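Margin note: ligand = 6-phosphogluconic acid.
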Amino acid sequence: MNNMQNIIEIGIIGLGAMGYNFGLNLISKGYIIHGYDKSFNKSKVKNLKIYPSISKLYDAINSSPKVIMLSLPNNAVDKTISKLIKIMNKNDILVDLGNSFYMDSVERSKVLKKFNLNFLGIGVSGGPTGARNGPSIMVGGSKKAWFQINHLLKSVAAKENNQTSCVYFGGPANGHFIKMVHNGIEYAFMQTLAEVTTILSKVYCINYVKQKEIFKSFLNTNISCYLLKVTSEIISAKSKNKFFIDKIDFTIGQNGTGNWTVKSALDLSVSVPTIYSALSTRNLSKDFNIYSNNIEINNSDKNVKINQSILIDLIMFVFSSALFQGISMINAYNENFSDKIKFRDVFKAWANGSILQGKFLNIFFKKLNNKKTIDKSYLKEFISSQLKSDLLKTRSLINISNNLSIPLPVITSSFNYYDTLFTSHKIGEIIQLQRSYFGQHKLLDKKNNIFIPKWVKK
Ligand code: 6PG
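Resulting structure:
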């Protein structure tokens, strides 16, 4: 208990946009930051002290136990931990604030335990502005360390009505797992909105300035969220009379978290086609447009009148599918690992400060919060409770887009996901029979009894 008050000096290794702003946030709450970053040699900020080496930083921290936070690119974490192991003392606390792969956090925690060092793997969301003013903080790892420093993490986290978005999820993997799932959903939300801008441009012939107004008006509906606001800000931004959207290169960057989400979903046997499509489009993006001479708005059917409520339904449908797929990963994680992550806690962490925050998230979680598990019926019920029109109208907009060769990978994969689940078809039966025919794989009938077709030799 006493330790809690003693920790007022903290080391931060890595003062890039996230680490630096997280440090400033801590300083604004009264903490003293000892920082190290290769490309930083002095500080103009009071209570941010810079050191020429990690060991000098360590020596300067005048609190016990000493707390060191890493805000580093994933590939620099292990090297830095190896250095720190040599200089840190028993019971010190090492915090990884970066976007790390959750299974790496398990390994790191084990290694550090051998040296009696306590580890916290923390996902931080909200970008540099969030880090400075109140991020979402997803914590996993040593309970003792959490107990010792939760007050300082909570002091910098986003808050609303006294509810903090700093949440402890248990084991060392859990914080980074929840952040990874968050990022996969983030990819899908971002691309949903990018695909909708393409529909607005190509189906409805709407210019960027009008698109901004449309997105802004959507902020008053149930699909409202931070990423919608971001899209409304960027869509018509310009300088020297030229829209940024027409100036910048189209290759989409990524830091690897979406890749981890998809790989982890496969490992957990969870289907995440909406998230996968967003990731896959990023991978494809370096080749966008290269075979096309003309990407101007030239093939629209001028007779198609915009119906904003269909667009809202469309976004609602795809956001719901993406979020549902991400939550299904958490569900499967709970089934596979002993730490049970509560949906209520996930919502608490994401509700404020995160990139996913917004009204849509609040509505989606409203009925989910008290559930222990989620099944597919949740998606169907949620969608039918939220959509203003029937899905047929939304589908016809997709058909029009399709006829105009408008690419909608995230939108169409969401529809395929939904239809595969909720319509009757014989895809499963056909594939099982194919497997049986050429591979003699076991078949079960509808009553779960062994079924032996005529081509299988008894
Ligand atoms: C957040 C974001 C953040 C992420 C960047 C870039 O929650 O604040 O998820 O952690 O690193 O947005 O991600 P990509 O480079 O993969 O787009």
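Residues 179-422 form a domain with the N-(1-d-carboxylethyl)-l-norvaline Dehydrogenase; domain 2 fold (CATH 1.10.1040.10).
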